[in-house]
Amino acid sequence: MSTVQPALSPGGLPGSRAVAAVAWERLRALRPGLTLAALALLFILVAAIAPSLLTSRSPTSIDLGATLQAPSAHHIFGTDQAGRDLYARVIHGTRQSLLIGLGATALSMSVAISLGFLAGLSGRFVDGAINRLLEVVFAFPVLLLALLFVTVFGASATTQIVAVGIGTAPGYARMVRGQVLAVRGSGYVEAASALGHSYPRIIRRHIFPNAMRPLVVVVTLGLGQSIVWASSLAFLGLGVAPPAPEWGALLDAGRGYVTKAWWLEVVPGLTIVAFALAVTTLGRYAQQRLEGANQR
Amino acid sequence: MTVELAARRPHTSDAGADSHGDLLRVENLRVGFGPPKAHREVVKGVSFTLAPGRCLAIVGESGSGKSVTARTLVGLTGRGSVVQADRLELDGRDLLGFGDRQWRAIRGKDVGFILQDALVSLDQLRPVGKEIAEGLKLHGAGTREERAEKVIDLLRQVGVPEPELRARQRPDELSGGLRQRALIAAALALDPKLVIADEPTTALDVTVQAQILDLLEATKARGKTLILISHDLAVVSRMADEVAVMRDGEIVERGDARAVLRNPQHAYTQALLDAVPSAHSRGQRLSPASPPRVQVSAAPTASAGRGAGPEIAPPVIQAEGLTKRYRGPDGLDRTVVDDVSFVLGAGETLGVVGESGSGKTTTARIALALVEPDGGQVRLNGEAWSGLPERQRRARRRQITVIYQDPLSSFDPRWSVERVLRDTLDPAAYGSDAARRQRVTELLELVGLQDEHRGRRPLQLSGGQRQRVAIARALGPDPSVIVCDEPVSALDVSIQAQVLDLLVDLQDELGVSYLFISHDLGVIHHISDRVLVLNEGRVVEHGDADDVFYRPQEPYTQRLLAAVPLLERRAATDPIRSAR
């Protein structure tokens, strides 16, 4: 909104507004959301790599004297029906959850990049065929597609990865294709062909790196999404077999006790949300930085 | 110095009107953007007055603050802007301290605003008639039927043929000229006293521009007060009673249009006027002083200077009967290039001029062998060029290079200037890293860039610098011909002058030929030895530049030339006008 005002004494803005504006700028400069997201992600990474640094308890040691205990100083996230410490289970489940998320994202991206580039760079026929295929797969909801995989191949971490990876690939593939087409029609690709560079060289030096640029951000956003999908599968009992700790599986395990022990659902649920939120926040930040630099 | 005084004390100036009867009074207007800490002032104390029925032109290059000044008058300076002034009065009303609601009451009703780009400014999804009626509706004028009638009437007034039909069409169904007319109709709908036109003809072809200027003149003749924002001095000289020349947020010179344009007092105004390319400037420098350049002995391909005809050296490009058809969305073939033939000699410049859609760019792309002609053929340096398999052509592509209108989009955004230039070098000729580095240094020197620019990305360069890099890239392979596709159209007039001077110097030094494409007849006449006039894909006229411009044979060329507004101070002696 523009402010129109009579010329004041040299100094411009009225005092109180200036102070408020400066305070707001300071607060914005700190970017609390971003800092929090970075810290959360750091914590999750430590939990995945070296869970024993964060808890000395075993995630599977049963203590029948302390079943379904509410969060307390002793068990900060409470215990489950077998007296296992929920905090230890969440921490130790991180690696598995993260691997499933990363695996699914990696698979999804490889499929998407191969198909997207193939479609974007080939002639009308191949492009059309790939597009139809993608549209068919795209028409199925991700969860339905994943369920189909799990029923055919049986529940395991690998199936979870494949199911989520294939399910989310078409969306990314279409995006990659769009990027390839945009870069392929760009001025600098034409300039390179006018200089007499060969097509493979142009693909390698211009089309590939430029089409991949926006994907960096999409990968971070997709990672959070994949974990949510994988957890959904696990929640439906189609993930890793209990009692191995995994966030989605924890959700599933706590389902039966939700009226008696709310923490069994809420804590793993919030963990998944926190992770997805942290990754997404950082992804958006990266997006702003990268695309901001791309504008004039 | 006197200029500064005039800007500060407008009431003593020669504006030629009683200051009490002024429609608009602006004193010490300052507009800035950004938070207090990073506050950036873009208008720094501008003062002017405008009497009813007069036309004031605010002239300046990009970033001079001319558009922001105009937008202040309708309260559209945008987010985070701070507007201050000692006085800001429209028709005796104080505009300072106006809120949104008050601005809305004024916009359209008291001040009509015409924006530059009609395609962006009009709602794509609504018929233009509805768009024009919107203003009437907001200010509560008449019933629905009365408004519809008024819209047709307005469209007729601004010279839109078949207004009943056009009112029902969406902007994308109209031509650029019709869209601009619709926008003017919308601005005039509520009969405002003051009409502000921000670069109203910049995106238009010359013949359309002439029509729009006629229309604005007619508007003024009906008693409207006009503020015209433009970078084009020729347009200004045709329309304005008064001129204010802006630079870096300040008015450097202000006064009677005729006086300022004929006898500029300020050095900047003088430089702006000198920078305009035309018939007069041929063979002369447009920019005051080019940066010193080192003479580089970079393999001159021909010693022939400007004006060497094709009979002396073998032709660089020989195009015969070029034809290209594209299938339109309606399934019908459209012939974009129709039997175009031309010859470009060594060290010579062939100007290709035409309006949008005349086939200029397609012709250029055929010459570059980026598009295969459906008929006819191109020979490059005496050998077959079009119709060959790409593999055979690739090695010879170094003989013909290109400079685009928008250099930014023609550079890979990730690449530094150094990398862009190295990419152009022939690995056979520049084997070692040291040799490549040396050549990049040479190229930078040739186009007047410094060593510090090596590591920059295209985004970190100014428009003029980018175009210099584009020229360096075109020179990299030592070509015998450079295709220049509107190379100066996106540049400010003073930068355009520098780039044109540079192109002329390079031709003198290296003997390279140019196939120079432009819609700007002044630029074409300035730089070309011979000229090809295209219209709807066909060659209308072809010949020596002076012959075509001074003695045009074809009615189309004559119409085109007549449509070009000329600078007043030159108009009296300009042979283009006096020849007819």
What does this structure look like?
The complex is a heterodimer of chains A (296) and B (580). By secondary structure, chain A is mostly helical. Chain A has a single domain, classed as MetI-like fold, CATH 1.10.3720. Helices cover 71% and strands 1% of the residues of chain A. In chain A, helix 2 crosses helix 10 (263-294). Chain A is globular, with a radius of gyration of 25 Å. With 580 residues, chain B is an alpha/beta fold. Chain B has 3 domains: 2-110 and 192-275, Rossmann fold, CATH 3.40.50.300; 123-191, no CATH class; 317-578, Rossmann fold, CATH 3.40.50. Chain B has a 6-stranded mixed β-sheet with strand order 7-8-9-3-10-11, with helices on both faces. Chain B is globular, with a radius of gyration of 26 Å. Chains A and B meet through strand 1, helix 1, helix 7 and helix 8 of A and strand 4 and strand 17 of B.
